[in-house]
Protein backbone atom coordinates (compact mmCIF):
# COMPACT_ATOMS: atom_id res chain seq x y z
CA UNK A 1 0.00 0.00 0.00
CA UNK A 2 1.22 3.51 -0.79
CA UNK A 3 -0.25 6.33 1.31
CA UNK A 4 0.10 10.01 0.41
CA UNK A 5 -0.99 12.69 2.81
CA UNK A 6 -0.96 16.33 1.78
CA UNK A 7 2.08 15.61 -0.38
CA UNK A 8 3.44 18.86 -1.78
CA UNK A 9 6.48 19.83 -3.87
CA UNK A 10 7.49 23.34 -4.78
CA UNK A 11 10.30 24.19 -7.21
CA UNK A 12 10.86 27.92 -6.65
CA UNK A 13 7.68 29.60 -7.84
CA UNK A 14 6.31 26.39 -9.34
CA UNK A 15 3.96 24.29 -7.23
CA UNK A 16 4.54 20.96 -8.98
CA UNK A 17 2.54 18.82 -6.52
CA UNK A 18 -0.14 20.47 -4.44
CA UNK A 19 -1.41 18.69 -1.32
CA UNK A 20 -2.04 15.22 -2.77
CA UNK A 21 -3.84 12.81 -0.46
CA UNK A 22 -4.72 9.33 -1.73
CA UNK A 23 -3.99 5.65 -1.11
CA UNK A 24 -2.83 3.11 -3.69
CA UNK A 25 -4.26 -0.25 -2.64
CA UNK A 26 -3.10 -3.83 -3.20
CA UNK A 27 -4.78 -6.35 -5.49
CA UNK A 28 -5.72 -3.93 -8.26
CA UNK A 29 -3.99 -1.90 -10.97
CA UNK A 30 -4.23 1.82 -10.17
CA UNK A 31 -3.72 4.12 -13.14
CA UNK A 32 -2.08 7.51 -12.52
CA UNK A 33 -3.22 10.05 -15.11
CA UNK A 34 -2.66 13.71 -15.74
CA UNK A 35 -1.76 16.04 -18.60
CA UNK A 36 1.92 16.86 -19.32
CA UNK A 37 3.49 18.63 -16.37
CA UNK A 38 0.67 17.62 -13.98
CA UNK A 39 3.18 16.35 -11.43
CA UNK A 40 3.03 12.56 -11.92
CA UNK A 41 6.78 11.93 -12.14
CA UNK A 42 7.49 14.32 -9.26
CA UNK A 43 4.96 12.42 -7.14
CA UNK A 44 6.54 9.09 -8.05
CA UNK A 45 10.02 10.40 -7.27
CA UNK A 46 8.83 11.54 -3.83
CA UNK A 47 7.32 8.08 -3.19
CA UNK A 48 10.81 6.64 -3.81
CA UNK A 49 12.54 9.25 -1.67
CA UNK A 50 14.34 10.68 -4.75
CA UNK A 51 12.77 14.10 -4.14
CA UNK A 52 12.08 15.55 -0.72
CA UNK A 53 8.52 16.84 -0.22
CA UNK A 54 8.11 20.53 0.61
CA UNK A 55 5.22 19.46 2.86
CA UNK A 56 3.14 16.37 3.55
CA UNK A 57 4.09 12.76 3.80
CA UNK A 58 4.27 9.53 1.83
CA UNK A 59 4.60 6.01 3.25
CA UNK A 60 5.22 2.58 1.76
CA UNK A 61 3.39 -0.01 3.84
CA UNK A 62 3.48 2.46 6.72
CA UNK A 63 7.19 3.36 6.45
CA UNK A 64 9.14 6.13 4.69
CA UNK A 65 11.17 4.85 1.74
CA UNK A 66 14.48 5.87 3.40
CA UNK A 67 13.72 3.67 6.39
CA UNK A 68 12.66 0.56 4.46
CA UNK A 69 14.95 -2.40 5.12
CA UNK A 70 15.96 -3.86 1.70
CA UNK A 71 13.84 -1.37 -0.27
CA UNK A 72 14.04 -3.31 -3.58
CA UNK A 73 12.25 -6.20 -1.93
CA UNK A 74 9.45 -3.83 -0.80
CA UNK A 75 8.89 -1.59 -3.82
CA UNK A 76 10.14 -1.96 -7.38
CA UNK A 77 9.95 0.97 -9.77
CA UNK A 78 10.49 1.88 -13.39
CA UNK A 79 10.97 5.62 -13.62
CA UNK A 80 13.55 6.45 -16.26
CA UNK A 81 14.06 3.61 -18.74
CA UNK A 82 17.37 5.03 -19.97
CA UNK A 83 18.84 5.31 -16.48
CA UNK A 84 21.27 2.43 -17.08
CA UNK A 85 25.05 2.71 -17.49
CA UNK A 86 25.45 2.48 -21.30
CA UNK A 87 28.59 0.34 -21.17
CA UNK A 88 27.03 -2.29 -18.94
CA UNK A 89 25.21 -5.37 -20.21
CA UNK A 90 21.64 -6.08 -19.12
CA UNK A 91 22.95 -9.01 -17.09
CA UNK A 92 25.61 -6.96 -15.29
CA UNK A 93 23.26 -4.10 -14.63
CA UNK A 94 20.83 -6.46 -12.90
CA UNK A 95 23.62 -8.39 -11.17
CA UNK A 96 25.05 -5.19 -9.64
CA UNK A 97 21.59 -4.25 -8.40
CA UNK A 98 21.04 -7.73 -6.99
CA UNK A 99 24.43 -7.90 -5.25
CA UNK A 100 24.09 -4.48 -3.64
CA UNK A 101 20.64 -5.41 -2.33
CA UNK A 102 21.28 -8.95 -1.08
CA UNK A 103 19.22 -10.54 -3.85
CA UNK A 104 20.36 -13.98 -5.09
CA UNK A 105 22.02 -14.27 -8.55
CA UNK A 106 19.42 -16.78 -9.79
CA UNK A 107 16.80 -14.01 -9.55
CA UNK A 108 18.70 -12.10 -12.30
CA UNK A 109 18.16 -15.03 -14.68
CA UNK A 110 14.50 -15.29 -13.65
CA UNK A 111 13.68 -11.66 -14.35
CA UNK A 112 15.66 -11.59 -17.62
CA UNK A 113 13.57 -14.53 -18.71
CA UNK A 114 10.33 -12.94 -17.45
CA UNK A 115 10.88 -9.81 -19.57
CA UNK A 116 12.16 -11.69 -22.64
CA UNK A 117 15.74 -10.34 -22.59
CA UNK A 118 17.67 -13.59 -22.02
CA UNK A 119 18.95 -13.70 -25.61
CA UNK A 120 20.44 -10.18 -25.38
CA UNK A 121 21.45 -10.32 -21.71
CA UNK A 122 25.19 -9.94 -22.51
CA UNK A 123 24.72 -7.03 -24.93
CA UNK A 124 25.63 -3.52 -23.79
CA UNK A 125 22.65 -1.37 -22.79
CA UNK A 126 23.76 1.46 -25.12
CA UNK A 127 22.67 -0.65 -28.11
CA UNK A 128 19.21 -1.21 -26.68
CA UNK A 129 16.09 0.16 -28.34
CA UNK A 130 13.67 2.13 -26.17
CA UNK A 131 11.46 -0.95 -25.96
CA UNK A 132 14.39 -3.14 -24.78
CA UNK A 133 15.37 -0.49 -22.23
CA UNK A 134 11.80 -0.47 -20.93
CA UNK A 135 11.96 -4.25 -20.53
CA UNK A 136 15.27 -3.96 -18.69
CA UNK A 137 13.78 -1.30 -16.38
CA UNK A 138 10.84 -3.59 -15.68
CA UNK A 139 13.24 -6.47 -14.96
CA UNK A 140 15.00 -4.25 -12.40
CA UNK A 141 11.66 -3.38 -10.79
CA UNK A 142 10.78 -7.09 -10.49
CA UNK A 143 14.23 -8.12 -9.23
CA UNK A 144 13.47 -8.01 -5.49
CA UNK A 145 10.06 -9.69 -5.97
CA UNK A 146 8.43 -6.70 -4.22
CA UNK A 147 4.81 -6.46 -3.07
CA UNK A 148 4.53 -2.95 -4.51
CA UNK A 149 5.34 -1.97 -8.09
CA UNK A 150 5.35 1.45 -9.64
CA UNK A 151 5.80 2.12 -13.36
CA UNK A 152 6.10 5.55 -15.01
CA UNK A 153 4.98 5.25 -18.66
CA UNK A 154 5.92 1.56 -19.00
CA UNK A 155 4.50 1.10 -22.50
CA UNK A 156 6.52 3.99 -23.90
CA UNK A 157 8.44 2.69 -26.93
CA UNK A 158 6.94 -0.79 -26.87
CA UNK A 159 5.43 -2.43 -29.96
CA UNK A 160 1.89 -3.89 -29.86
CA UNK A 161 3.17 -7.26 -28.65
CA UNK A 162 5.16 -5.50 -25.90
CA UNK A 163 2.15 -3.40 -24.91
CA UNK A 164 0.02 -6.53 -24.66
CA UNK A 165 2.72 -8.19 -22.57
CA UNK A 166 2.85 -5.22 -20.15
CA UNK A 167 -0.92 -5.26 -19.80
CA UNK A 168 -0.93 -8.96 -18.95
CA UNK A 169 2.02 -8.51 -16.56
CA UNK A 170 0.36 -5.65 -14.62
CA UNK A 171 -2.89 -7.56 -14.29
CA UNK A 172 -1.17 -10.73 -13.13
CA UNK A 173 0.95 -8.82 -10.58
CA UNK A 174 -2.25 -7.27 -9.19
CA UNK A 175 -4.01 -10.65 -9.23
CA UNK A 176 -1.18 -11.96 -7.01
CA UNK A 177 -2.28 -9.35 -4.46
CA UNK A 178 0.47 -6.82 -5.22
CA UNK A 179 0.03 -3.07 -5.33
CA UNK A 180 0.47 -1.83 -8.92
CA UNK A 181 0.67 1.92 -9.59
CA UNK A 182 1.18 2.90 -13.22
CA UNK A 183 1.19 6.15 -15.18
CA UNK A 184 0.45 6.37 -18.88
CA UNK A 185 -0.66 8.79 -21.56
CA UNK A 186 -2.11 5.95 -23.63
CA UNK A 187 -5.74 6.13 -22.60
CA UNK A 188 -6.97 3.18 -24.64
CA UNK A 189 -4.32 1.05 -22.95
CA UNK A 190 -5.11 2.39 -19.50
CA UNK A 191 -8.81 1.65 -20.06
CA UNK A 192 -7.87 -2.01 -20.64
CA UNK A 193 -5.40 -2.28 -17.76
CA UNK A 194 -6.45 -0.19 -14.75
CA UNK A 195 -9.23 -0.97 -12.28
CA UNK A 196 -8.89 2.28 -10.36
CA UNK A 197 -7.77 5.77 -11.40
CA UNK A 198 -6.04 8.64 -9.70
CA UNK A 199 -6.16 11.74 -11.90
CA UNK A 200 -4.21 14.93 -11.20
CA UNK A 201 -4.02 18.30 -12.94
CA UNK A 202 -1.54 21.07 -12.09
CA UNK A 203 -0.42 19.08 -9.08
CA UNK A 204 -3.91 18.76 -7.59
CA UNK A 205 -6.10 15.69 -7.15
CA UNK A 206 -8.97 15.71 -9.67
CA UNK A 207 -10.30 12.17 -9.21
CA UNK A 208 -9.66 9.05 -7.14
CA UNK A 209 -12.24 6.56 -8.30
CA UNK A 210 -12.94 3.26 -10.05
CA UNK A 211 -12.52 3.19 -13.83
CA UNK A 212 -16.24 2.57 -14.37
CA UNK A 213 -17.29 5.46 -12.12
CA UNK A 214 -14.73 7.79 -13.67
CA UNK A 215 -16.08 7.24 -17.17
CA UNK A 216 -19.68 7.43 -16.02
CA UNK A 217 -19.21 10.70 -14.11
CA UNK A 218 -17.04 12.44 -16.67
CA UNK A 219 -18.64 11.53 -19.93
CA UNK A 220 -21.89 11.66 -21.71
CA UNK A 221 -23.80 8.46 -22.32
CA UNK A 222 -26.65 8.38 -24.79
CA UNK A 223 -28.59 5.98 -26.99
CA UNK A 224 -28.20 6.01 -30.77
CA UNK A 225 -31.40 5.17 -32.61
CA UNK A 226 -31.86 4.64 -36.32
CA UNK A 227 -35.18 4.03 -38.03
CA UNK A 228 -36.54 4.06 -41.59
CA UNK A 229 -39.61 5.74 -40.02
CA UNK A 230 -37.67 8.64 -38.57
CA UNK A 231 -40.47 11.19 -38.44
CA UNK A 232 -42.81 8.72 -36.80
CA UNK A 233 -40.14 7.79 -34.25
CA UNK A 234 -39.49 11.47 -33.48
CA UNK A 235 -43.21 11.94 -32.92
CA UNK A 236 -43.44 8.91 -30.58
CA UNK A 237 -40.41 10.10 -28.59
CA UNK A 238 -41.76 13.64 -28.43
CA UNK A 239 -45.12 12.42 -27.10
CA UNK A 240 -43.24 10.48 -24.39
CA UNK A 241 -41.41 13.66 -23.39
CA UNK A 242 -38.07 12.43 -24.77
CA UNK A 243 -35.80 14.80 -26.66
CA UNK A 244 -33.75 13.43 -29.52
CA UNK A 245 -31.07 15.25 -31.48
CA UNK A 246 -29.89 14.57 -35.02
CA UNK A 247 -26.45 13.07 -35.24
CA UNK A 248 -26.02 14.16 -38.86
CA UNK A 249 -25.87 10.71 -40.46
CA UNK A 250 -29.53 9.80 -40.28
CA UNK A 251 -29.35 8.56 -36.71
CA UNK A 252 -30.85 10.18 -33.62
CA UNK A 253 -29.16 10.56 -30.25
CA UNK A 254 -31.24 10.35 -27.10
CA UNK A 255 -29.96 11.50 -23.71
CA UNK A 256 -31.34 10.42 -20.38
CA UNK A 257 -33.38 7.36 -21.44
CA UNK A 258 -32.52 3.68 -21.37
CA UNK A 259 -32.28 1.77 -24.65
CA UNK A 260 -34.80 -0.77 -23.29
CA UNK A 261 -37.41 1.95 -22.75
CA UNK A 262 -36.91 3.44 -26.20
CA UNK A 263 -37.14 -0.02 -27.76
CA UNK A 264 -40.37 -0.78 -25.94
CA UNK A 265 -41.85 2.58 -26.93
CA UNK A 266 -40.97 1.93 -30.57
CA UNK A 267 -42.45 -1.59 -30.46
CA UNK A 268 -45.66 -0.38 -28.84
CA UNK A 269 -46.04 2.16 -31.62
CA UNK A 270 -44.99 -0.22 -34.39
CA UNK A 271 -41.94 1.79 -35.37
CA UNK A 272 -39.24 -0.27 -37.10
CA UNK A 273 -35.73 0.25 -35.65
CA UNK A 274 -32.53 -0.49 -37.54
CA UNK A 275 -30.29 0.46 -34.63
CA UNK A 276 -30.71 0.89 -30.90
CA UNK A 277 -27.33 1.16 -29.25
CA UNK A 278 -26.27 2.59 -25.88
CA UNK A 279 -23.12 4.72 -26.31
CA UNK A 280 -20.57 5.37 -23.59
CA UNK A 281 -17.74 7.82 -24.07
CA UNK A 282 -14.19 6.49 -23.96
CA UNK A 283 -11.73 6.99 -21.11
CA UNK A 284 -9.89 9.42 -23.37
CA UNK A 285 -12.96 11.63 -23.78
CA UNK A 286 -13.71 11.48 -20.05
CA UNK A 287 -10.09 12.37 -19.27
CA UNK A 288 -10.04 15.29 -21.74
CA UNK A 289 -13.24 16.62 -20.28
CA UNK A 290 -12.06 16.44 -16.67
CA UNK A 291 -8.62 17.87 -17.32
CA UNK A 292 -9.48 20.45 -20.00
CA UNK A 293 -8.99 23.32 -17.57
CA UNK A 294 -5.75 22.02 -16.10
CA UNK A 295 -3.92 21.37 -19.37
CA UNK A 296 -0.79 23.53 -19.16
CA UNK A 297 0.71 22.89 -22.56
CA UNK A 298 -1.47 22.62 -25.63
CA UNK A 299 -0.97 23.27 -29.31
CA UNK A 300 -2.82 26.18 -30.87
CA UNK A 301 -5.02 25.17 -33.76
CA UNK A 302 -8.30 26.12 -35.34
CA UNK A 303 -10.06 23.26 -33.62
CA UNK A 304 -11.90 24.36 -30.51
CA UNK A 305 -10.63 23.30 -27.06
CA UNK A 306 -12.07 19.99 -25.85
CA UNK A 307 -14.42 21.53 -23.27
CA UNK A 308 -16.13 23.86 -25.83
CA UNK A 309 -16.34 21.12 -28.40
CA UNK A 310 -18.06 18.85 -25.95
CA UNK A 311 -20.47 21.42 -24.60
CA UNK A 312 -21.56 22.34 -28.09
CA UNK A 313 -21.81 18.76 -29.25
CA UNK A 314 -24.00 17.85 -26.36
CA UNK A 315 -26.47 20.55 -27.16
CA UNK A 316 -26.49 20.26 -30.93
CA UNK A 317 -25.87 16.61 -31.50
CA UNK A 318 -22.62 15.43 -33.05
CA UNK A 319 -21.98 15.79 -36.73
N1 LIG B 1 13.68 19.54 -10.97
C1 LIG B 1 12.73 20.41 -11.29
N2 LIG B 1 12.95 21.74 -11.22
C2 LIG B 1 11.99 22.62 -11.55
N3 LIG B 1 10.75 22.29 -11.99
C3 LIG B 1 10.47 20.98 -12.10
C4 LIG B 1 11.44 19.97 -11.78
N4 LIG B 1 10.86 18.76 -11.98
C5 LIG B 1 9.60 19.00 -12.42
N5 LIG B 1 9.37 20.33 -12.48
C6 LIG B 1 8.12 20.97 -12.91
O1 LIG B 1 7.09 20.42 -12.12
C7 LIG B 1 5.92 20.21 -12.91
C8 LIG B 1 5.51 18.74 -12.84
O2 LIG B 1 6.44 17.97 -13.59
P1 LIG B 1 6.35 16.40 -13.72
O3 LIG B 1 7.51 15.96 -14.56
O4 LIG B 1 6.22 15.81 -12.38
O5 LIG B 1 4.98 16.21 -14.51
P2 LIG B 1 4.39 14.93 -15.25
O6 LIG B 1 2.96 14.86 -14.89
O7 LIG B 1 5.23 13.74 -14.96
O8 LIG B 1 4.53 15.33 -16.79
P3 LIG B 1 4.71 14.43 -18.11
O9 LIG B 1 3.41 13.75 -18.32
O10 LIG B 1 4.99 15.45 -19.15
O11 LIG B 1 5.85 13.49 -17.87
C9 LIG B 1 6.24 20.68 -14.32
O12 LIG B 1 5.76 22.00 -14.48
C10 LIG B 1 7.74 20.64 -14.35
O13 LIG B 1 8.25 21.61 -15.24
TrEMBL record:
Record the organism: Streptomyces capillispiralis
**PROSITE patterns the record matches:** ABC_TRANSPORTER_1, ABC_TRANSPORTER_2
Q: Offer an example of a GO molecular function term for this protein.
A: ATP hydrolysis activity
Q: List all Basic and acidic residues biased stretches.
A: 310-319
Gene3D superfamilies registered for this protein in UniProt: P-loop containing nucleotide triphosphate hydrolases
Membership in a protein family: Belongs to the ABC transporter superfamily.
Return the SMART domains for the record.
AAA
Name the segments for region: Disordered: 297-319
Entry's PANTHER family?
Answer: ABC TRANSPORTER, ATP-BINDING PROTEIN
Q: Which InterPro entries match?
A: AAA+_ATPase, ABC_transporter-like_ATP-bd, ABC_transporter-like_CS, P-loop_NTPase
Q: Which UniProt keywords apply?
A: ATP-binding, Nucleotide-binding, Transport
Q: Which residues form the ABC transporter domain?
A: 2-227
Q: What is this protein called?
A: ABC-2 type transport system ATP-binding protein
CDD domains attached to this UniProt entry: ABC_BcrA_bacitracin_resist
Amino acid sequence: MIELEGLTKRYGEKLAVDGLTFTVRPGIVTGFLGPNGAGKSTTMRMILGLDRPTAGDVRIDGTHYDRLPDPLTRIGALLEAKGVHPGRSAYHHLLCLAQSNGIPRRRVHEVLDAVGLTAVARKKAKGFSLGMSQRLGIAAALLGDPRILMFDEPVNGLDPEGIHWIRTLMKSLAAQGRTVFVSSHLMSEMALTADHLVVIGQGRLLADTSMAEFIEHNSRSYVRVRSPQRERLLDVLHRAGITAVESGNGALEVDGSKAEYIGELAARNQVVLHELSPQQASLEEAFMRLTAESVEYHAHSDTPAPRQQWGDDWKKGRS
